Amino acid sequence: MKIYKDYKDHADFLTVYVREAHPTDEWQMKSNVKEDVCYAQPKTLEQRVAIANDFVKRFNYPTQFGIDDMSNAANDAYAAWPERIYIIDERGRIAYRGGMGPFNYHPEEARAWLAARYGEVKHEASTPAPDKKNN
Amino acid sequence: MKLGGKLLKWVGAVVALLILAAVIGLSVMAGGIRGAYGMVRYALPHMHRGTLRVGDNAPDASLLALDGSSRFHIRERTGARPLVIVFGSYT
Question: Any chain A CB within 8 A of the CB of B87?
């Protein structure tokens, strides 16, 4: 998670687990089968906790993590499903409101907000692979 | 009566074309007819633009921690620095 690594000294990050987007018993995606990410839609909070822990362990996910209740209170308050990013400023106000995923989910906009405040973090472009013809 | 029947046929044809266009559009977006069904049946009912705007007070909500027992509020994590909240799921 590059944005976290780049700005963790300036901002706090919180990931909130909300209801599954593509569970096996609803609209499952082939890509999830391929990547072995197959879960039914949780019916209990314990099931949500188990899936959230699987996710964090698999990706060694670094940010603070919270799990939405089965009432979907956080999801409803932020119209968050299936994925969405917000930035809350120090006064507790919405400073950035991302679009609804997946089509309008643009983490680069959140990065731009952080960059405007704290400066851009530049990454060296990866070295291109050597041209085989010249070898 | 003749004119009414003709008009009804035209309206029916236009409606059918609109439905066909919607099915094709959704299928393209969702990667096939099955995906289009999944999108309409399972995704669209849960997708909401929401009413929050930049400058609004951020809503609070209670969240469960990964340990499955302790809880915290989003508001507890705000104040000192900006808080980037990423909502999502595993699948």
Answer: yes
Q: In whole angstroms, what separates CA B84 from the centre of its chain?
A: 22
Inspect the interface and report whether the beta carbons of B82 and A114 lie closer than 8 Å: yes
Which ipTM was obtained for this model? Answer: 0.89
Distance, CA of B7 to CA of B9 (rounded, Å)? 5
Q: pLDDT, tens digit, for every residue of A77-104?
A: 999 999 999 999 999 999 999 999 888 9
B85 and A85 in contact by Cβ < 8 A? yes
pLDDT band at A51 (very low <50, low <70, confident <90, very high): very high
Long-range contacts of B41-44 (CB under 8 A, 24+ apart): B41/A26, B41/A27, B42/A26, B42/A27, B43/A21, B43/A27, B43/A82
Three-state DSSP at B64 gives strand
